[in-house]
Amino acid sequence: MLVSTKKEDLRLSELVRLYREDQKATVTKSTYQRNYFATDSLLRILGEDTLVDRVSAGYVRKCLANQGEKPGTTNERITRLKALLRWGYENDYVSDIRWLDKLKKFKDDEKAKKLEEKYLESDELKTLLRSMSVDEWKFLAELTALSGLRIGEAIALNADDVDFKRKTISVTKTYDLANEIVTTPKTPTSNREVYMQDELLSLCKQIRLYTRKQELLLGFRSRLFLCDQNGGYLSYYSYNKYLQQHARKLFGKKVTSHFMRHTHVALMAEQGLPLDMISRRLGHANSQITKDVYFHVTEKMRERDNAQIKEIRIL
Question: What's the pTM?
Answer without folding.
Answer: 0.72
